[in-house]
Amino acid sequence: MLTLDQQYAIAQAPGPGPTGGLKLRQAAVGHFMLLSRLESPLVSDPRNMKAGDLALALWVLGRPWRKAERNVGNYTTRMWIRYDVRVFKDDANTYLSKLCDLLNYWKYHTTGLKCWERNGGKNTLPAVFSMQYALNQLGYTASQSLDHPLKGALAALTAMNAMSNPDSALMDEDVLGYMDDVRRRRRERLAKQKEES
Prior knowledge:
Elements: H1 4-12, E1 17-19, E2 22-24, H2 29-37, H3 41-44, H4 51-61, H5 65-71, H6 75-90, H7 92-109, H8 125-137, H9 142-147, H10 150-164, H11 173-196
Antiparallel strand pairs: 1-2
């Protein structure tokens, strides 16, 4: 069963959408972390994506991040990615259309803060830890923060940065409204749990 915060976050960000012939999942912090650990150019520098990078990113984003992490090195995964690479190399139009769709999808989910630009765009894991910390301040556990939608986590991180240094962050009303709603829903849920126990 989903908590109110999770239901709100899902309502704010789009669900799975067709991209490159696949139904991609809503990008979660765990997807961002996994792509960072795999050193995907999608996270660090999308301009340098090759056919194999595109196939791997589509595969990771096409399933829940925990399942992708568990199966990333198995035989079936390698065969699936190898097949896609052959298709992309044979048909440049397919490659370019899937690449454009994926970049638009990724741009939507990562608007608000370009956290991968830190450290010259090479090391993005500190950005994951920063998002986890921001979500932890809202009451999420480490496991819950990895399942949180990436768009919401970036909003939380942007809001936290703005609160600590108002001059450095660009805040818009959507981010502030999102943070207020998340906090209100969390307070309501905790009050309800307290009453029930």
